[in-house]
Amino acid sequence: MIIEEDNEPKPSNVFTPLVLDTMSIDQLKNYIRVLKEEMRRVQCEISKKSTLMQEAESLFKS
Prior knowledge:
The longest helix is centred in the C-terminal third of the chain and has 37 residues, at about 25-60. By secondary structure, this protein is an all-alpha fold. It has one helix spanning about 25-60. The relative contact order is 0.06. The two termini are about 25 Å apart.
């Protein structure tokens, strides 16, 4: 059984975008790279959780 720690910070569902006006073109391009990598990371997590959910559902359908 997995026990979650109550002390762990809960993720915020609020994304706070950066102020873009003060960033250079290179900084903006880097920011895009960072955001794309974060999107890939989130998509991977969604995929893992979807697979686990499907596996769990298949156990209960029998």
